Prior knowledge:
homodimer, 424 residues, alpha/beta, elongated
Amino acid sequence: MVRIGIFGLGTVGRGVLEIIRSRKLPIEVAAIVDRSYLKKKDIIGDIPASDDPSLILNDSSIEVIVELMGGIDLPLYIVREALDHKKNVITANKFLLAEHGYPLFSKARENGVRIGYEAAVAGAIPVIRNLQNIFQYEEIPVLEGILNGTTNYILTRMRKEKIGYQVALAEAQKLGLAEADPYLDVSGYDAAHKLALLASLLSGKWVEYHHIHVAGVDQVNLTDILWAEKMGYRIRLVARYQNKGGLITLSVEPTFIGPGHYLWDVEMEKNAIFFKGEFSGGHLFLGKGAGSLPTAYSVVSDMMHYLQGNHRHDADSDQNWPYAHPVSLDEEEAVFYIRFSVSDKTGVLAILTRILSEHNISIASVHQDIEIPNEGEVAVDEPVDLMLVTHKCRRKTLKAACLEIEKLDTLKGSPVLMPVDGQL
Amino acid sequence: MVRIGIFGLGTVGRGVLEIIRSRKLPIEVAAIVDRSYLKKKDIIGDIPASDDPSLILNDSSIEVIVELMGGIDLPLYIVREALDHKKNVITANKFLLAEHGYPLFSKARENGVRIGYEAAVAGAIPVIRNLQNIFQYEEIPVLEGILNGTTNYILTRMRKEKIGYQVALAEAQKLGLAEADPYLDVSGYDAAHKLALLASLLSGKWVEYHHIHVAGVDQVNLTDILWAEKMGYRIRLVARYQNKGGLITLSVEPTFIGPGHYLWDVEMEKNAIFFKGEFSGGHLFLGKGAGSLPTAYSVVSDMMHYLQGNHRHDADSDQNWPYAHPVSLDEEEAVFYIRFSVSDKTGVLAILTRILSEHNISIASVHQDIEIPNEGEVAVDEPVDLMLVTHKCRRKTLKAACLEIEKLDTLKGSPVLMPVDGQL
């Protein structure tokens, strides 16, 4: 029997309690700390509870803490204290680890304890342990994933029902899939936190999420979605890790993907991770990215794993990680979709094409009219969308051309740019 | 450094050598036994080699044998001997384990050694270890998979190119995806061997593959494929395990699946496994089901796993398994597709519908004409296909009706029957 303490009895915390109770695992929940513990007596039962962290932190018989509070300041204090008290930590908090993981993992190593974070990345999908314990004997040159269910839900609804971004977001909020403040999800930063953890594991170096090229779904509008569909593509928020002979590139951005792509059929709030093993080839792992019991199961299974000591070959156990130095995407060559918002489309196309051709960027196709259902009449002076797809070009070159185009009077706002991805 | 011996230096055996050599793993290949070892000197190098199994079996310094010979009689002898000599066994031989696994696993337990068989099921997909080491704390009420790449390739080619079964099979043979004698693949028995191993692991009881309801792709013709497509379905050879409160049902059969199904997009020679965890929800694992390096990677990763002793919680380590008693599919209710081959379709439809209605089976749709491309004129006296889809009915009832229908003079051969599966 191992004594554990749980911080935070929200939906995931309750799920953890439910699984431990129903499966009769050799785990004793010795204490619970929750802000509103008094209101949760029916779930807590006779487990000692408090809103004071010291109930758990000062109990030397507690070997493992489960941190499921959300937020970042209090969790940081608690995880740090727990590690100082030589307690193992299991957490689902990707923001905390992406932001403060380096000193926390170092502290854990120094104190001979562990941080389990399977539940922090892609919910119920056991990607961390598969990469740590099964695929550690080969190089993984590429990993691509849909790591944020909320935004995948939004993009799916927009496409299926031809609704705008704001409407789809509001629906997601109504269903509890998006938070009142959806910034971390829609900006792409939640996915970037998870990608940083995956990239650190894969490269054996600590990846700062600030080094990831991030664009969010908040820049995607219905025009993009409909045009993508017309061309036979779908837009997904793709998190991507690439390692070419030690040169690591990292991005989270809305990406056009085609029907042969592994992530094509990953709809609604599902998460999925595709990676290629040097020997074992392509793998897709698909599953629930969130939810009370799915995430709770990851917490419990991770905890049992560490309790059994089956972890000696985890990548994070060896030594302190050096910092990674990802390279920028500037040199990357790809096909790009660009949407310009223009006030006068008759004259502007000629100028746009001239500027692009001056930068040696050749255009594969141009599109101006896409029917948006139920949009009604567009006022004459409203900006209209002008979309084009390039042939393969360097990202850096395209960015330079776009900077020049942005200065035109007829341009309203910055151009929106998304890579067009083929099959893997 | 652990000393291992390899039996069989075919494509997978070579892959194992290549990975061990290139990754500098703490493994020493101490000896190789291969029928044609003299012709393989360029790969074997200075590793001691022979065609005599005793080179490995009698070397007490060899702790692990890797059995990659193919066939069943000689592997059985070798694995049994190896276990008697207290050597661990890693094998990709599903036929051997499905046929003789019970005494072999028992012998391994008695002698305190292990049989690793990750590579025997679904090639590079790490399904065995995920079920053993990550999902062992929850019930798995359903598992469905495409466990045979050869037949999935055949079905995909038939659909995409509208070619007949024999043509697609010949193509697969030309590409080395199907063997000269394709019986084990096309009959469904190769998938059944793998399903038996998975079902044993999931249920904690030994499942004899003879208890699995098996139908092969050799009964699927182009008419079925085209009609499925017309209705919005695809035909896949689905291996299925279900456990309803301890009642286990098992089947391998061509199945109609719809576009929302997890296995919808699993094309060509890919393998995939879907399962539902009681807590963690639905998971899809997709990857390469065969091939030299992918299968070899499974062998190597599995071997490292056992060498590190990270196996104490494997389901097969606890005790002797009781035998499982799967129940028949007779009571199962499903929608079915049936194809009758009839000599005279004008009169026969009335008789068929009468017999079905006498068994209280109601018909959802009937179809008689499907255009087969490039088939030319059909002779007047040739049997023609008559297809129908039922409403939900009991398999037992349908089988009884079919038995009665089979006796009609106008029927040519037995009706072909496939369940129509919706979304999971």
